[in-house]
Fold these 2 entries.
Entry 1:
Amino acid sequence: MNHSAPQTTALSLFITCAKGLESLLEQEVRDCGGQQVRQSVAGVSCQANLDTAYRLIMYSRLGNRVILLLAEAPVQDADELYRCADSVDWRQHLLPGQTLAVSAAGSTEQLKHTQFIAQKVKDAVVDQFRRKGLPRPSVSREAPDLLIHAVIRRNRLSLGIDLSGTSLHRRHYRIEQGDAPLKETLAAALLMRAGWPQADIEQPCLVDPMCGAGTLLIEGALMALDIAPGLVRDSTLSAWPRHDPARWQAIVDEAKARRRKGADWKGHILGSDADERVIGFARRNAQRAGVDAHIDWQVAALADNTPARTPTLVICNPPYAERLGEQAEVELLYRELGDWLRHHARGAVAAIFTAKPEWGKLLGIHSHKQYAFYNGALPARLLLMQINEDTVYKRETRPAGDKQLTPRTLDPGTQMFANRLRKNLRSLGRWATQQGLECYRLYDADMPEYAFAIDCYGDRIHMQEYRAPASVSEEDAAQRRRQAYEALCLVMQESRQIPPSHITLKVRERQKGKEQYRPSEKAGEDFEVREGKARFIVNLERYLDTGLFLDHRPIRQWIHEHSQGCRFLNLFCYTASATVQAVLGGATSSTSVDLSRTYLQWSARNFALNGVDPYQHKLLQSDCLEFLQGCRQEFDLIFLDPPTFSNSKSTENVLDIQRDHVRYIELCMARLAPGGLLIFSNNHRRFRLDASVAEHYQVEDRTAASIDRDFARNTRIHRTWFIRARE
């Protein structure tokens, strides 16, 4: 059997791509020699010879698959599907004993499941080999010799085979990536729409000031240096028996020659990001792509970034506001990006890729062209703008070298909010300095229309918005959030030189189940704060809570001052900050109990930071009720600070502190040594201590003494009692 495909043979090809790239891919197919080229949904069809197919596999920067179409027919049901698949002479495309896999898409009224469609096509192939008395091919989902595509559109089946060994979008250099990475094919499309490479400029300079793991810049370097994607991914062909190795090798040699010639490119590429970790990713990704020598990487926040060369094209994909509370932060970043472009990119073209085109107005620069794309399933746009006097909005910009935010006019309500922040900084800030406090609450919904809790953690700010009532629209809430965030940024910069990157904004809602312990999409940064002699690790982004409950600071201080020689028990210990204070205050031993492994690991890090002996001071993962029921030890000081409600999957015990507090108190009192003390605290706003507790024990309400000046506006932040055995 002759398995070769003559060079002159006309092949029907379909080149798949991401939605939105079809028009660009059409031109790419024409450049590679395709004839009768037509766009379709998520792809382009053409007539071609084998050389053209190989050029597409080697050179396409936009395509995903090069599929050789073998049959097309109308199909309604399983029988028609089978007959169409059986009409192909599969011996021409698959050798006996080789493996196959079938990818299916689409449906009809009777063919509703893609898995069933794939199974019927596979059956037709296998049955054909059996009828001829040949060894049946087997299915391999990992690395099949032949990948068959079955696509049904408008009750018509297109059946084809993949000519490449892998999806063309996988360049194999992007092993490490940051948050929300762009696919290589989309990055290449954005660069093409932005006019890169800029052949009409002698020494073009491509800059991405928020480059992340570097995909845009690496693709830009590959394009400028004329390095074919097929060389980067060490492209291989499928095991289709009609491939022509000699002709494929000629295409490979041609691509290598073009790469050698392209190495003389005289342009420059600059990438920077505030995250040192992702710059490391970018540098290593560029090394794997073979272009690192042509890209200069820098760790720098946008406000600190002065490019070493004047850009001719600035391209970037700013962060998206994926979580509630991030929108104001991202919108402020757009304003800062606009200031940066006006100051550092005059005369350049800027290409900003965004999921919210309306944010482009925040840049303060007119766009002369917009292109629609999809980032995965998310609609997005590429905004193109020429940075010159005609396109820049007439407004004040920051002077060179000024790292402060551009001053902006606040509306009267927001100005009042900013003034309240300034007033609190003068009073509470002075008080905190006198008390030696790094961490304190600066603002706690002082103005009802600005319902935020704002906490200072050294030179970091944690801003939480209390969820607006249902009567307030999300649009109005988002606008108020944005105004408040910008006011806070301005006040913090003018008074304490704290940049926006050190301000974290969250929307705080009532949490269900384990939601408050579920990590967010952003890992955030762990950093160290001090409280008296103690040091604690906090993180303002990773979880709803930060690792340190500031309202319990007076309780921790009391524990520190009265724990000398004590055996200390900390129930629902969270990150064990109270235990650290007890140990530093002289506790001889301690046991800290929590059901969360995450928080016990955090506790262990706090222990290590403060030199706490983990053998003398134990961390125990357990349900607190089960621990108390099985415990036989005695303790001199017990701290019981349970959540209002807990419904963990790790235990059958459901905690409702209003219902269950008497039981917990009784179990704790049974473990108290003579003369010992139980400190009972909780954050239930409507909590009422059962009268039976005072009947059996000596109870002292210490709530007032346990609330410091920075929480004085919210006396219901927690309730605290000292409970002792009656004499």
Entry 2:
Amino acid sequence: MVNEKNSAFRKYLPYFIFLLMFIYVIWGLVKVQIVEQSEHKQLLNELLGSSDYSRGLRGSIYSSDGVKLAWSEQIPIISMKTYTTEDDARLREFLTTEQIVSIKNTGQAELTWEQAFLLKSIGYETTTIERRKSYGFLYQIIGSVNIDGEGVSGMESVYNDLLKGKVSVSYGVTNPSGSYEQGFIENTGENGMDLQTTINYGLQKFSYDLLTELATPSVIIVSDVKTGDILAMASYPSPEIDMNSLDNISWEKILNDPMKPLLNRAISSTYPPGSAFKVITAFAQLLYGRPNTVTCNGVFTYKDSKGRVTGRYKDWLLSGHGVVDLKKALRVSCNVYFYNAAIDVGADNIAKVARAFYLDQKTGINIPGEVVGTLPSPEWKVENIGENWYPGDTILYGIGQGFLNVTPLQMITLYNTIANRGTFVKPKLLINEEVVSKKILLDIPDPYWDLVIQGLEEVTTVQGSGANAGTAAASFKGFPITVAGKTGTAQVGSGQPHAWFVGFGPSRQPMYSVLVLVEHGESGGHFAAPVARKIFDYMYQNGFFEDIQSNQDAVTSKNES
């Protein structure tokens, strides 16, 4: 009986084992395809999926007259990890020797679009890279990007987040051979935002060309006195090549150039302003002193409280200017008058007026590198030099010399504030940037504004002898619009003086201001003012003063009729 049962068990055991195996296989299939389907599908997609990240092009930077100042281009390239003899034979038919050498040395080469098309047709894969471009003479304003396409200087740096393209992801599912088997999601990176600057390309190029003719470190700034728009900011020298794609040798050459072409002298260098600062001394005397006439014989003699002569200070005109009041002192830039005025009001009051015009602060222009000059005072000298302040320091302070230093942008902003009769306007470089203005920290009566502006008008309009003519009158002779301006000749150690001119026009309906600084240019009247006249001529001939010209034409027509 037992043997019969064992025999029956052995008979059906294979069927039982087969059934268990069948059930296990069925369960395995159900588990993989139904229970764990999502997990295995995710794994398969990870193995066969392809993700591609791309970034849109960087936005362009435009001038106010519609010229591209900085822009990006897609450049086709071929990249090869290995380069065989067969590749060499095939590619030499389509590529130049320089491109072949580049592939051998770096693994890639830039192509023309025609070359990219032809290489694709014979089975080679090409891609594109973004190449940033701009003009070397605009480097101090626009700046440049690094190898990763990120802004590292100028406006490229300040507005990097707005300019750079947005990243997108394209996704596809491939078969094991690597070719696409299913449809895929493709996104194109969104381009960065375009920006429009206040820079007028034509005026900027004209200004830089003028400085190139001078061939010495120098600055031209042109601005809108009401809005603070910078129409031109030329600093010479500038780099002669596009700074976005430099090789190491070119970079080292520019970096070590003794002329410092990377330096934006308009905002990053400070200079004694010389006679261009005399407007501050003039306001200080009007507010805190006793304006009167002075007889200028070419020398100012300073006597101490005991009547002893402790210093003699020369005028720029050794024969003297004769009898001089404040208006004439501005016109002829009489040093003797302003020596007296400085002693009259004292260093503290000169510094107080300068601070009221914000000369102790940066202008706030939105590009990197702006510095602030030195606005001295008796306290400043003790703290920084460890010496007391002497009457000679005050005398030199009155004519914009001594310890005083400013940037060219600070000076043109000062004259914009005078043009606006006490309203400081922050300089700006973007068209749609908000106009920011504030009142100066002094209440100056209208008659004082009138007197100083009249003196500045006479600088460019009153002809005559050296003792009586405006210091820029010869340069502005015949110009149809009255410009209120000031020359400056600033002594610097043993070298030749710096030459300044800064002014605005029309003087009674101010629109634009112009500043010219020529390092070691000797005389503001002889070297800076003629350059400023050329700038004003260019603007007049190219319609910048169109509204004024239309009014003048209307008045002329009415008078003739």
